[in-house]
């Protein structure tokens, strides 16, 4: 057997924290060859990033501890190397890029400095390094490299920052590139560009890529091999196609089962139910101001531009768009958190933009919201019981105080939690459970419409699938309607009856979900759908053919 | 930059006007200077003449109007005690206070950056625990207590340091100590916590992944970011030096603005009080502009924001 480029064998890492020991990875082995891409696939907490961190020597010891194992690179076990020798390898022969590009680039240095630094750290003379850095910025597809060299990270978009990180990483032509969730924070069209760039660079210099991801679509797009991790262990590994097409381990099977975009479209289509929510010509403009007195410059940002939509009883309306498309502004306007510049919001034919506070409040009750990040949207100092009963304290006519505990217990059961969870606090729950609490809170006022603002976007796929199931159940039981806002297309495809696509504050396409996904009319929608990793497209189509 | 400077000047001018109003009327609440400056048995006619000469017999609002008019001509009035221009008194005392504060700040910052950084390197370690304890004590101890204990130990018991005057470098030791200990304690804690955050920040990890030498990671990447909150707090502390200077200069007989201020208050020497407050406020205004400029140099996000 020939020697691999990078080989991790039998690696176990644990972390000590306040007397407890967490075994982050247990006897993990994988190997990466030249010109090859290995995806390490796993959900949060699976330990997928830990072996990569060990390769880079980024595990702080203590609290970390490498219990056993070897990492063989260039014929030697790099776990045993002294710091100076490690610094020699890092960035030069093995390079790494990270997920959160804004945090991972130093805000106080120019991007040029940071790319240059990855060369000067390895003995390249400064002038030469600068010259090469400009070439690298160009190579990763950023226009005007000489000018952008002196810009700071915050002056770039997320996708461009990831390109800058890649430029710094490939500066020394490394043998191995480790990419830790490089596209998870990016919009789908931007993600497609980054993945394409990585493949192009790999074809040019034959580096091995280790792709750490939670996204099966991304893995299938770029990887040759995959190692599936769960709870610190590699449960299954092998050729990507064989693992994805014929998973052997139950965990992989469950994971693939949970992936959205594989079910048929909801065939309810145009519902005959009553019209609940109607939005007509809703606009929100922000004036650009300048100077001490904030005088208007006459220029406006059109966050929402003449948006109209309607939602009937028992219907799910998907709203799809990338960052900056106006989705959040729409939610805020619907919730009455911002005042629209123009337009109407009608609930059962009654205007929601009333002057009368009491009447307004009564209407507001009918529309509740579940936000993306349950950690941020649940007050950490309130018990679950208080969180769920808080709406009753505000809308005091809904439920007499004596009945609160009983109703909290009922709601918890409805969302799949246990009544004795009421006394606990949010931090004692997992992300998925917290989202269930947020849903219970939304249900407390017996709303007719629930706005799900990226409500499942932060969750792992298996949890995501469970929450969607819950939303479906609740819809059946209570005849709820959902405004389902997401940037993740497959989820919308599975769940929404109708879909509207937003771009730059405008609705560019709307129709039955199936029509939007299969016969997109607007070029933007077409581009959005084409940017999805091919796995999603592949599976979607396969399923349609089956039917 | 020009626009920024105009905005800041405008904002500060408004605050300064508020300050002028406040000081002018508060000072006059203490009573008529004639009662203090003239002998007890001075006949009423002489008192009245004294008041008339200095305009104290006028309605308050007229006095204030006159003061404002004089101020526009950069005339801050004359000392009641010796008839010299008030501004001259203040400008003569100011360099001493400035130098005192400069040394105190320099020593505070140096000690704080070194100690805080080392403590942040191994949070919870022995050095960190000792440094945290001492800096907490330093930040909590009142100035006057340090002054009194300092005098007791070094001047009374061991007789190694003088207690008043400015003659030799040794004269500066106790006053500087009184001024620097508190800011030093506060700053050490700020450096420590912002350095701990910077050392575990993702960009520090990225730099390590690039193979950047540990020393460059600490001093180039982490420390520069960690300095941002430190600059802000150091600015506050420097502005607060005037409080400490009042105590230190009074106790150690130091001819600075702090002592001048206290003496003038004691004698109801209104013109000098007003001038001292004015000059100090203007100095703090420039200090704040300096801090903003340093901040903008350190953080490009502020520069482009």
What does this molecule look like?
The complex is a heterodimer of chains A (547) and B (305). Chain A has 547 residues and is α/β, with parallel strands linked by helices. Among the domains of chain A are: 78 residues, no CATH class; 192 residues, P-loop containing nucleotide triphosphate hydrolases (Rossmann fold, 3-Layer(aba) Sandwich), CATH 3.40.50; 73 residues, no CATH class. Helix content of chain A is 38%, strand content 27%. Chain A contains 22 helices and 20 strands. In chain A, the strands form 4 sheets. Chain A has a 6-stranded mixed sheet. In chain A, helix 4 packs across helix 5 and helix 15 packs across helix 16. Chain A starts with 5 loop residues before the first strand and ends with a helix. By secondary structure, chain B is mainly α. Chain B has 2 domains: 42 residues, no CATH class; 218 residues, Orthogonal Bundle (MetI-like fold). In chain B, helix 6 crosses helix 8 and helix 8 packs antiparallel against helix 10. Chain B is flat. The two termini of chain B are 12 Å apart. The model of chain B has no long low-confidence stretch (mean pLDDT 88). Chains A and B meet through helix 2 and helix 7 of A and helix 1, helix 9, helix 10 and helix 13 of B.
Number of strands of chain A: 20
Instruction: Report low-confidence residues of chain B grouped into runs of 5 or more.
Output: none
Give the helix tally of chain B: 13
Give the largest interface: A-B, 34 and 26 residues
Which CATH top level class of the largest domain in chain B fits? Mainly Alpha
CATH class of the domain at 275-366 and 447-546 in chain A: Alpha Beta
Main sheet characteristics of chain A: 6 strands, mixed
Oligomer: heterodimer
């Amino acid at each position: 057997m020939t020697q691999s480029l990078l080989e991790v064998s039998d690696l176990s890492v644990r972390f000590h924290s306040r007397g407890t020991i967490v075994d982050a990875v247990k006897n993990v082995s994988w190997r990466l060859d030249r010109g090859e891409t290995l995806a390490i696939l796993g959900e949060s907490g699976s330990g997928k990033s830990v072996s990569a961190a060990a390769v880079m020597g980024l595990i702080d010891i203590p609290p970390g501890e490498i219990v056993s194992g070897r990492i063989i690179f260039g014929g030697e076990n790099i776990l045993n190397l002294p710091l100076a020798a490690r610094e020699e390898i890092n960035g030069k022969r093995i390079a790494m890029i990270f997920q959160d590009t804004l945090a991972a680039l130093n805000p106080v240095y120019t991007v040029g400095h940071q790319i240059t630094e990855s060369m000067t750290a390895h003995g390249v003379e400064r002038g030469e390094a600068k010259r090469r850095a400009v070439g690298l910025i160009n190579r990763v597809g950023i226009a005007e490299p000489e000018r952008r060299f002196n810009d700071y990270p915050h002056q770039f978009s997320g996708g461009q920052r990831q390109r800058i990180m890649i430029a710094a990483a490939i500066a020394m032509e490394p043998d191995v590139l480790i990419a830790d969730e490089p596209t998870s924070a990016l919009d789908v069209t931007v993600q497609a560009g980054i993945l394409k760039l990585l493949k192009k660079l790999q074809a040019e210099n034959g580096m091995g890529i280790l792709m750490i991801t939670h996204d099966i679509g991304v893995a299938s797009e770029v990887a040759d091999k995959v190692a599936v991790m769960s709870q610190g262990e590699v449960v299954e590994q092998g050729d990507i196609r064989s693992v994805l097409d014929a998973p052997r381990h139950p965990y992989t099977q469950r994971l693939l089962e949970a992936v959205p975009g594989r079910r048929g479209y909801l065939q309810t289509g145009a519902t005959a139910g009553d019209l609940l929510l109607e939005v007509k010509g809703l606009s929100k403009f922000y004036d650009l101001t300048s100077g001490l007195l904030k005088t208007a410059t006459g220029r406006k940002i059109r966050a929402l531009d003449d948006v109209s939509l309607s939602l009937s009883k028992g219907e799910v309306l998907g709203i799809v768009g990338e960052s900056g498309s106006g989705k959040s502004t729409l939610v805020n306007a619907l919730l009455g958190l911002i005042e629209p510049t123009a337009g109407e919001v009608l609930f059962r034919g009654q205007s929601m933009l009333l002057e009368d506070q009491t009447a307004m409040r009564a209407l507001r009750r009918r529309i509740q919201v579940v936000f993306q990040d349950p950690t941020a949207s649940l007050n950490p100092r309130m018990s679950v019981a208080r969180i769920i009963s808080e709406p009753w304290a505000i809308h005091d006519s809904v439920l007499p105080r004596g009945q609160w505990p009983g109703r909290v217990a009922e709601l918890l059961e409805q969302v799949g939690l246990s009544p004795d969870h009421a006394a606990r606090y949010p931090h004692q729950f997992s992300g998925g459970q917290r989202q269930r609490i947020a849903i219970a809170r939304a249900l407390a006022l017996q709303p007719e419409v629930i706005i799900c603002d990226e409500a499942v976007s932060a969750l792992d796929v298996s949890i995501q699938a469970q929450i969607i199931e819950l939303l479906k159940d609740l819809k059946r039981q209570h005849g709820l309607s959902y405004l389902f806002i997401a940037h993740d297309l497959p989820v919308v495809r599975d769940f929404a009856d109708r879909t509207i696509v937003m771009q730059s504050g405008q609705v560019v396409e709307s129709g039955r979900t199936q029509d939007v996904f299969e016969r997109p009319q607007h070029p933007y929608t077409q581009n959005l759908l084409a940017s999805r990793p091919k796995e999603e497209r592949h599976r979607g189509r396969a399923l349609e053919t089956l039917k | 930059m020009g626009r920024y400077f105009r905005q800041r000047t405008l904002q500060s001018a408004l605050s300064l006007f508020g300050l002028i109003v406040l000081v002018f009327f508060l000072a006059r609440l203490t009573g008529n200077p004639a009662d203090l400056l003239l002998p007890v048995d001075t006949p009423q006619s002489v008192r009245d003449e004294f008041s008339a000469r200095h305009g104290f017999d006028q309605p308050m609002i007229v006095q204030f109007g006159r003061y404002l008019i004089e101020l526009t001509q950069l005339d801050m009035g004359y000392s009641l005690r010796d008839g010299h221009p008030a501004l001259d008194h203040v400008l003569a005392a100011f360099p001493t206070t400035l130098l005192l504060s400069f040394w105190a700040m320099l020593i505070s910052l140096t000690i704080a950056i070194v100690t805080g950084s080392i403590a942040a390197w191994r949070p919870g370690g022995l050095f960190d625990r000792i440094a945290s304890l001492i800096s907490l004590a330093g930040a909590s101890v009142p100035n006057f207590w340090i002054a009194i204990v300092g005098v007791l130990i070094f001047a009374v018991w061991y007789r190694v340091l003088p207690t008043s005057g400015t003659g030799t470098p040794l004269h500066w030791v106790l006053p500087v100590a009184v001024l620097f200990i508190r800011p030093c304690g506060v700053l050490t804690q700020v450096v420590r916590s912002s350095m701990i955050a910077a050392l575990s920040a993702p960009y520090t990890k990225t730099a390590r992944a690039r193979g950047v030498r540990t020393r460059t990671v600490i001093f180039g990447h982490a420390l520069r970011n960690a300095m941002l909150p430190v600059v802000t707090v150091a600015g506050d502390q420097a502005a607060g030096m005037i409080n400490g200077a009042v105590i230190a200069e009074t106790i150690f007989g130091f001819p600075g603005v702090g002592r001048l201020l206290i003496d003038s208050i004691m004698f109801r020497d209104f013109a000098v009080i007003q001038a001292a407050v004015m000059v100090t406020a203007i100095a703090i205004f420039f200090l704040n502009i300096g801090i903003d400029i340093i901040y903008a140099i350190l953080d490009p996000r502020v520069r482009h924001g």
